[in-house]
Amino acid sequence: MEENAIVGVIIDDEYPEYPGGLQALRDFISTNVTYPSDSAEGKVWVSFIVDTAGRTQNIQIKKSLSPLADAEVIRVVKIMQFIPAGRNGKQSYSKMSLPVTFRRERKQ
């Protein structure tokens, strides 16, 4: 093995992208996530695979907030559609992680 080889890491030429970019992803999440009835505030960290068709799979909660918040994040991630990653001109699977913040609206 070469001295400078990185074992087990494949870097894609193109990363998965949400159509419309990061702001569109934020808008999608804020529009589709329903605040859970257990009133938890904080972040849920979720990881998932974006497959070659841009669908999400293998969704896993990496940092839990509450059972209802976690379930809501999983529900929303399941309906997301991405532009898949690419390597050498071909679509490839890619792992992503996202934080989803739950915060109650503050009355002014």
Task: Profile the largest sheet.
Answer: 3 strands, antiparallel
So what's the overall shape?
elongated
User: Helical content, roughly?
Assistant: 10-25%
- Rg over C-alpha atoms, rounded to the nearest angstrom: 16 Å
Q: In order across it, which strands form the biggest sheet?
A: 2-1-5
Q: Strand-residue fraction?
A: 25-35%
Number of strands: 5
Helix-strand pattern, N to C? HEEHEEE
User: Which stretches are low in confidence, meaning pLDDT under 50 for 5 or more residues running?
Assistant: 1-9
Q: Total helix count?
A: 2
Helix/sheet category: alpha+beta
- What's the average pLDDT? 86
- Alpha-carbon distance between the two ends: 62 Å
Task: Give your account of this protein's structure.
The structure is a single chain. The chain is built from two helices and five strands; from the N terminus they run H-E-E-H-E-E-E. By secondary structure, the chain is an alpha+beta fold. The strands form two sheets. It has a three-stranded antiparallel beta sheet with strand order 2-1-5, with helices on one face. It starts with 21 loop residues before the first helix and ends in a 6-residue tail after the last strand.
